[in-house]
Write a structure and sequence with these properties.
Blueprint: E1 2-4, E2 16-19, E3 39-40, E4 72-75, E5 100-103, E6 113-116, E7 123-126, E8 131-145, E9 148-163, E10 166-181, E11 184-186, E12 189-197, E13 202-203, E14 207-209, E15 213-216, E16 219-220, E17 224-226, E18 230-233, E19 236-237, E20 241-243, E21 248-251, E22 255-256, E23 260-262, E24 265-268, E25 271-273, E26 277-279, E27 284-287, E28 290-293, E29 297-299, E30 304-307, E31 311-320, E32 328-330, E33 336-340
Parallel strand pairs: 3-4, 4-5, 6-8, 7-8, 8-9, 9-10, 10-11, 10-12, 11-13, 12-14, 12-15, 13-16, 14-17, 15-18, 16-19, 17-20, 18-21, 19-22, 20-23, 21-24, 22-25, 23-26, 24-27, 25-28, 26-29, 27-30, 28-31, 29-31, 30-32, 31-33
Antiparallel strand pairs: 1-6, 2-5
Length: 341
């Protein structure tokens, strides 16, 4: 695991362990062997107080910094050395393979960042309450964070990042990255990889899906914009949906509320679509199951409403301005109903 700016922790009533790459244990006390000295940031023996983690003179084990496998780092009040109180900003300027970081009960508020480059299928867990600038999951491993965590930005470009706590952050997912939310995300999610919002969970910010896939069986409360890839909902999407570009929005169950503007493909295979629906351009709105609405439906451009695999009821006013020869198609034995045309 590589660390650079962005992580912070305040004084705790007990020392906390942050287990790094190479361990698959969450919350376990991973202690250095008796033959290895614990390196203390700014402790007795240190002679400088720069923000560079890799500078040995900033540590009690001067001139050696705790960067090698088997080493351990300890952060306290930053006093004891001859260089003055240790810096609260910690910049890890080169990769480290430290076994553990311990934050003592009297620790300062430290800021740093975490990048996980473990790429051999490792399972890494962090159960501390974290806050700072950035957290990055960048390679073929799984990083699970729990507790109450706050970052300005969280990036997932490889492997899997699992949130099992309360997360305040902007989340970006790209390429081979997978982000699975098992609890709460307060902030926007920008997906061009794989996003799973699973179970009784909530995303309070908007979802922007520019590629890849999103599967939602929880709640997304800030609306959805899908311009590429696919978004599949089976529970709750609130705040409206906009489909454009090459994006596809599919609902198998649950409710989409706040209205929907369709500029490409919507597959309505179940549940409710509440709020006004507007289909523009050459878009297609497919009915493939039992679907209800509680507001207006308007077809524009050459848009198509195809009721071929299910029944669609509850529309208050159905307006067809589409010039397509197949603007509205209702297959035999299927039902399309509206209170007014």
């Amino acid at each position: 695991m590589i660390f650079d700016r962005g992580f912070s922790t305040g004084a705790r009533t007990r020392a906390r362990k942050l287990l790094l790459a190479g361990t698959a244990l969450a919350g376990a006390a991973l202690l250095p062997s008796l033959a290895q000295a614990q390196s203390v940031w700014g402790g007795a023996g240190s002679s400088t107080n720069t923000n560079n983690y890799n500078t040995g003179t900033n540590w009690s084990t001067n001139p050696v910094a705790p960067t090698a496998a088997g080493s351990s780092a300890q952060f306290g009040d930053g006093t004891g050395g001859t260089g003055g109180t240790a810096s609260t900003a910690v910049n890890v300027s080169a990769p480290v393979t430290t076994n553990s970081w311990t934050f003592n009960g009297n620790s300062q508020n430290y800021t740093m960042g975490i990048t996980n480059n473990a790429n051999a299928g490792q399972a890494i867990s962090i159960a501390n309450n974290l806050a700072g600038v950035s957290l990055s999951q960048a390679a073929a491993s799984t990083l699970t964070v729990s507790g109450t965590n706050s970052f300005i930005f969280m990036n997932v470009s490889g492997g899997t990042l699992v949130n099992s706590g309360s997360l305040q952050s902007t989340v970006g997912i790209t390429g081979a990255g997978t982000f699975t939310n098992n609890l709460t995300v307060n902030g926007p999610v920008n997906n061009d990889g794989t996003f799973n919002n699973s179970g009784v969970v909530t995303v309070s910010g908007p979802l922007t899906n520019t590629g890849g896939s999103t599967t939602n069986s929880g709640s997304i409360n800030g609306g959805v914009a899908v311009s590429g890839g696919t978004v599949t909902n089976s529970n709750i999407v609130a705040g409206g949906v906009t489909v454009s570009g090459t994006g596809t929005y599919t609902q198998t169950a649950g409710t989409t509320s706040g209205g929907l503007t369709n500029g490409n493909i919507v597959n309505a295979n179940g549940g409710a679509f509440n709020g006004a629906i507007l289909s523009n351009g050459a878009s297609v709105f497919n009915i493939g199951g039992t679907v209800t609405s509680n507001s207006t439906f308007t077809n524009n451009g050459t848009a198509q409403l195809l009721v071929t695999g299910g029944d669609y009821t509850g529309i208050t006013t159905l307006t067809n301005n589409s010039t397509s020869a197949n603007a509205i198609v209702v297959s035999a034995t299927r039902t399309l109903s509206a209170a007014a045309l």
